[in-house]
Fold each of these.
Amino acid sequence: MAEPLLQVDQVGKRFGGFVALDGINLAVAPGERLGLIGPNGSGKSTLVNCICGALHNESGSVRFDGQAIDGMAAHQRTILGLARSFQLPRPFHSLSVAENLHVPLLYAVRARFGSHLSAREINDHCIEYLRLVGLDAKAHKRPRDLTQVEMRKLELARAIAAEPKLLIADESMAGLSHSEVEDILKLLVRLNERGITIILIEHIMSAVMSFSQRLVVLVSGKKIADGDPAEVVRNPEVEKAYLG
Amino acid sequence: MRSWLFTLVCIAVGAITYAVMRGVHSEYLFVAGYVVLEFVVLATAWNILGGYCGYVNFGSAAFFALGAYTTIFFHKAYPLPIPLLIALSAVVSGIAGLGMGYLTLRLRGAFFSIATLALAVVLQTLVVNWDYVGGSRGAYVIRPQALSAFGLTIPYVEYLFLLMLALVVIAITTARLIERSRLGFGFATIRDDELAAEASGVPTLRLKLIATTLSGALMGMAGAPFPYYIGYLQPASAFGLEYAVNSIAMPMIGGTGSWIGPLVGALLLGTIQQVATVTISSAVNLLIVGLLLVAFVIIAPNGLVGFVTQRLRAREP
């Protein structure tokens, strides 16, 4: 395996007496499509928060693109090329759809070394990403005027606009219809084809199975399986975690 | 409109206002006008942190008083012209704003607001016990009756009014510049969702420190000429409740979304208060603010500007 883009070593996180993450190890290769699953409360979102800097891990270390990022603020990690979408869309309500995308372009992409974007270029990038997710016709609308699926697309588009090396999509398909799930999946595959490494956290197993090249399963803050998706779902421990 | 053009328009409007007021030949107009303009600066300064970033500062009076007491300190230690004192007050209050930011900006919501209130109490206690600036007894500043420069002589209160007019231009152009800049985008994301802002690469802590520094500096500037205006400064007047309440109420009533809101709110509320002061009593000023605030929270929660904008949007086909 090539040098991992993301390397998580023995990461642990507690909330008072509750152990949310218990020595998690994870390596993600550049260009990989990784599925991360687990029952509710298994620690998926906590792991994402520790990777992205919204929470700080108490033990272990996180390396991204060959650099230790423990203790680094979330915005610095985004500038490095690590972007996420949130489980529940968190748009900037006072800004238009297009302006929502201007934010990562202005702050993350411009701050990245060697990136000098003019206002025109920012606008062009913004239109390109909105077209990619099919929201270009709604560029001047406010997020409150969008439907549920459009809101999720905006959430993804904003993460993409940070022009990341690694995108973590946290339950981007929750509550969507079958055709809407297909739309988002196609979008994620297109992004991966552009060279973006993707970690997909999802409960919709059909989506995870069709998207992931590798599957990791968390249960009660521990990693219980890691490997080929078809093999992982047949793992007795995984079956027990899901079916009891 | 480009920023330099906007600044020129502001200066022109200021000049016309001054010319009209001179034409009325009433010194009281300048006395009352000074207070209204002072509130325009305070409201605009408050709005940079409270309106743009969503952090409600209850400690406006502390920054205003810091500006006023910086003037008192230098008046005793090394007398300087008021424009220089305004600049020094901006530096002192800006540094205090930065310090407050470092100490409190990891707090959110009501906890942040309570911390800013505590800052005002701490500063007031320090000033009350600092004899050099007058302590609890207060300090006198004897101002000249008139100011002569370039062959012109104007009453001192007119000079103070002109200074405050200049501060209004500075405050409004600063606020508008922020609104239309990358900084303004960053502030809006902090107000909307701080976690999402960080995830989008916005350095939220740094931006909040910029906001507290700018807001504090402008409030300090508003307070700097105050000792010359009032003549006798005591902690109770510099740290007065009306500064904290009006700084919040005026942008809320005018609208916190843009630079126009605090301007409209301060002009409206400030004028009503000045009229009430001469027709009824200054004691009703806070009552007026309270009643208007309640009315606006119910009828127009986005302030006057927000209310009008919504109406106009609703009319669009």
Note: The beta strands of chain B are 139-140, 146-149, 152-155, 232-233.
Amino acid sequence: MKKLSAINRSDKKTAFLMLLPLIGLLTAFVIIPLFYAVFVSFYKWNFYQENIFIGFENYRRVLSDPLFYKAMWTGLKFAAIVIPAQFILAFLFANLIRTLGGKFGGFVKTSIYIPHVISGVVASIIFLFIYDFDGGLANFIITSLGLEQVAWLADVKFALTSISIPAIWLGFGLTTLVMLAGLNDIPKTYYEAAVIDGANAWHKMIYITIPLLKNIFLYLLVVGVTGAIQQFDLPYLMTGGGPLNETMTPNLFIFTHFTKDPYMGYTVASALLLFVILAVISAVIFKLFNSKKMDS
Amino acid sequence: MRKNKLFVVLVSLFTLVILMAGCKGTGPEGESAGAESEETESGKTVIDFWVSWGDSKADWFNKWIDKYNASQDEVEVKATFIAGDAWEQRVKAAQAAGTGPDVMTMNYGSIVFSAQQGKIQPLDEYVDPAIFEDLHDFANEFVSFDGKHYAYPFNAEPGSILLYRKDFFEEAGLDPEQPPETWDELIEYGKKLSKDGRYGLTAAGNTNDLAWSHWGLQAMTGQLPISDDWSKATINNEGYKKLFKFWKTLYDEGIFPKQQPGMYTEIQPLVDGRTAMMFNGSFTFDALRNEYADVVDKIGVAPLPTPDGNYKQPTSAMGGWTFVVDGNSKHPEEAAKFIEWFLAGDPEIMVDFFELSNFSSFTGRKSVDEALKDHPEASNDEWRKILLEKVIPYAVPEPIHAWEISLAYANALERVYLQGQDIDESLKQAEKEINDYIETNDYAGTNPRLQ
Amino acid sequence: MKEKVSRYSFKIIGFLVAAISIFPLFWMAMAGFKKESEVLSYPFKFFPSEWILTNYIELLQNPAFMRSIGLTLFVAVVATTLIIFINSMAAYVFARLEFPTKNFWWLYVIMTLFIPSMAILIPSYIVVAKLHMLNTIYVLIIPGIASAMNVFLIRQFYLNIPTELEDAAFIDGANRFKIYWYIFLPLSVPVFVLVGITAFLGYWNSLIWPIMTISDERLYQIMQLLAYFRSDQGNDWAMIMAGSTIAVIPVVVLFLIFQKHLVEGIKISGIK
């Protein structure tokens, strides 16, 4: 990237002036609350009594709670189900839409995106009905196929996958759109050249499409993984974290403590630990992303 | 460099303050009163009152609040109704920011801790001590801590009773007036009542519901999963083994569905005939009588079956609601006076409430019970009679120990009936989890009830 | 021949994919036409056995519901406009200007991407309470405006804009803000559509924050109102489904209007 003129005073002033609203708002509504949260995480804090400084006691309790690790692990597992499924579906859909082209392609594209506008709360309600043991669509299909009814939300083996499906449904629209944009950006000549060299459809995908979409994949990965780990609405409304904490995502874990604990320190400490974990995961992916950015 | 950073931070904050100041009160809606106003235009003290029931009983509350406001000219009570979904966040955030209400509703389980932490204030200083003599023992115990009264009871309700369909009993050749009394009977009846499209019994299905709706069943074993002084787990014993076996049988025999049809508190499965029996709370009476009048006659009510069939033991935990004065309220006296008028004054107010809610909950006051005795509807209410005679006298108060203890129990039960883990092993694991919790949190001896 | 067959099979697959992805929404709309007792029926039924219009009519005639839709629309539009302006201005600075401490501020902004909202929920509430913003329309709009994600996206977009245009403007003596205003803003429509729709959705669907900060029913947001409906109406699912269906319509319409730009916005923004 070519730099414009050298640093000068007017630049500095303009820069700060133009950044001011953003920095001001972020400071007031995100950074100050964050520091406040860090501060209270070292206290026995309940708003009504003198706060008692207890050092790292809250953190020690969180870190010695097996359920905290289980919740983190569940968040990762959830991401590991949702993200690949979303990627594969979106990739196939994007290719399909491109192949179809024209009005019909546009129609398919719109239909795929529309679930994205639904809120998690509404999606949870819809899928609660779909997963109903006796009157739900899912078991209607299963039994029509001659199989036995499945306890989608109560069976330890299925619960996490069951709540992943609405998450995939809510998310594949945007993922498809982003991939489509990437696909449309690959010059046709690349493919034409490949065909002359005798490449088949598979080769084209492996050697042209996927490498050129690498940056898109990485971007979607950061957004997708941090989003999936922070999933809250779906398990909260559909399973309450059960059965056997199989769907206890980190945010739901934090929320449960928020509502049940007499003191707030544990809640805040576990939320801050989640922040650290998310930041580390993202930093790793980001680093990858930014370095690749330079190559292209 | 240093100077620059500081400068920017200062300027940012400064602009922000200007921005906020500019915003205040100039919008299309202006600034509404909310929790901040202390006085009305006419100089009355404003008492903010938060109610945790959404809007469902708002008209009733407002009716009586209006009467109170009209009855004197010192205080104006303003009620805000907050749906259950957001109650906890709303209250905790407001408490943290010091914008909480003067009076709010609080469930029994929270009173002791809130009192211990100064979140609520004792009422004794401001009200006539006689109002506490009007309370039944159980209610008095609920609201007391350290020799003082920190709340006044609004209502009380058993959280676990048996509801069943008399018509299905007849269909299956069972006597509709003879509900199952022992666990074995329940299993036997359940088998007879199950058929295609109908389950023998539905009950709590998810971890959360199991954790709290089983307090009554836990009491039948003779002790909670943790000892009274909170020093050790008391879950690994014969009582719990029997309870787990009972639950597992219900599941394995197909008396339960593999996935419960909705939340514990939902009554629909019984109404639309998907199940013949159901564990639920007395709060369901309200919905049953309001919305499903056509099936009410077909529904029977009984205490939960017990291991030996004797109902004269705890079969349910009592939960319920009270009004409390916030620890930071600037007008504790006015707030307490309002509570006294509303909950401890004219028994008619509460009679009116129980009438409106179809006698789905109970009073903690002797005088209200007296008034209900002469009430034609209440005195002829069969369901009410059964609960008053067979459930409430023996019910245990809802426990106040940490939620983790109830969760450890629920998880242990889930391991057994959902995953087929050996009962002994599962209980051993739960015992370890509870003991670990006690150790990491220095929990032993912290039960405020014993202090 | 083979070509034709595969084209048809693609069309069929395309149709199936579209049908599956909008099916749950259709089901929701249908449920709004059902009688309360029929939302869950045994066995499963898609269409109502008797079409009931009362749910929809009742809602459309309910002044509180309609006002809430109007107000939420107002909040979302104002907030979206502010989001676009404030974040793109900052994005421009990070993309083009050089100044001391730039890296520090970039990190300062980007770090906020990973803060779980749960961690700062109560502290944020304390801040808005101290600023006397509770129960005002500002508390709904202002705290969500600064967004690291949007700054990041718009910056990536700006990095890909060639510098020739600005060089010419520079020579003509334009200052930085003028360049941003007259050159960058007009070029930004595609990325603004992307950011704008996402922001609008966020505001339209927000639930916890309005519930915490708004108790004045004149200011109820639509999802908040629907949540109160849920606890209020007991389990009148047909009504709730009808309400959710009506609440989804504005965002679907918005998307249909802007969808062309949406793909373009992603395409040209730096994430490719």
Note: Chain B has two domains: 45-158+319-380, 161-315+401-450.
